[in-house]
Amino acid sequence: MTKTNRFSLVAEAQLDGRLFLAQALAHGDTFGGIPRERADTLYQNIAAIAHKLITMKTTDLSDQSGLRTQIQTAFTLTSLGLEYGSKGNLDKAVRLLCKNRVVKFFQIGNTLAEKLLDRARQLLQHGVILPPDRDEAGVLGTTYTDLETEGIQIYTQAEQEFLKALLTYRTTIRSPQVTIRDTDVPRALIHLAEVNMIDQQLACIENRCHYVKALPLDNLFALDPPLSILPNPIEHLTLGLIVNLVLYRQADFQLDDDTRQDFYELAYVDGEIRQSLRQQLLDWIAQYLEQAHQSEPVKTYAVSYWDDCLRMEGEKVLAK
Predict the structure, then answer these.
(1) Is the pLDDT confidence value at 179 over 90?
(2) What is the C-alpha to C-alpha distance for residues 143 and 137, in angstroms, rounded to an integer?
(3) Residue 129 belongs to what H/E stretch?
(4) For position 59, what pLDDT does the model report?
(5) Which residues contact 50 (CB under 8 A, 6 or more apart)?
(6) How far apart are CA 287 and CA 301, in angstroms?
(7) pTM of the model
(8) What is the pLDDT averaged over residues 221-238?
């Protein structure tokens, strides 16, 4: 694709009317806050940013879909930076557009987004519990199958989709969740509120990683069945710990159908966890993490996570 055609694609691209940038430009046009010649310059500068992003990020210049994605990313990041700088005030945004180069807002938006993307990459890479190496396993006298020596993901499948979508400046959620259970088709980021929501969701997954890695995980890879084959291994691990604490007063993770049923009969009434038992369990994990020198956000999240796990188990009891 020629340089002329690339510029043509940028010139033909339409600003999504939901973007704060589009609203600010329309506001400036309506109230005469942005002179015509300044508006023309702004559009030319935005086009230049989009073209530069294409040059930096696109290897296949014949892929028009990929080119359009980069163009929209340039618009989105510029819009997020303007919304951040103006605190969402359209009058202030118009003044900022008149006094500053557009690239400044792109840089702000890019910095905001890259911080999120870096955290997503870290979680995808390190949000896993790794098994002991095979030599150590041999010394311990344990036989591991290939399944059992896979790492155990701390994020769920839905959370993996969320993290991967974020790497393309998209999101799959509409509100933060203790554990992501409800997802949408990935959609482009539009507003700063979505950036803040993603920040909260990443913190949830990060705090869960700290919570899990603070637990006594020595025999985790000897569990049957292996946690790595389960769709939500950390919820299963947490329930195993809860059941063993309640039934046997010990910190263990082994869980089978019989002990699970015994737990249901002891702990739930009409699908609701007994309140005194619920509080004892939440106090236990908070105290455990306190002794493990975990931060307040990790403790607060873990308590919410245990509460959510207990609630989900109650729904399973009712469904039986």
Answers:
(1) yes
(2) 7
(3) strand 128-129
(4) 58
(5) 10, 13, 70, 71, 74, 75
(6) 13
(7) 0.88
(8) 93
Closest CA to 254 of 243, 268, 266, 269: 243
> Per residue in 102-134, is it b (16+ CB within 10 Å) or e — as a string?
bbebbebbbebbeebbebbeebbeebbbebbee
Residue bearing tokens 């990935």: 186
In the three-class reduction of DSSP (H, G, I as helix; E, B as strand; rest coil), residue 62 is classed as: coil
Q: Where are the alpha helices (DSSP H) in 13-156?
A: 20-30, 36-57, 64-86, 90-99, 102-126, 134-140
Instruction: Find residue 272's DSSP bridge partners.
Output: 269
CA distances from residue 226 to 143, 220, 244 in whole angstroms, order as listed = 13, 8, 18
Q: How many CB atoms lie within 10 A of CB 178?
A: 17
Residues 88-106 have pLDDT tens digits of 999 999 999 999 999 999 9
DSSP element (H, E) containing 280: helix 275-291
- Mean pLDDT to the nearest integer, 245-253: 96
Position with higher pLDDT, 232 vs 35:
232
Tokens of 305: 């996570």
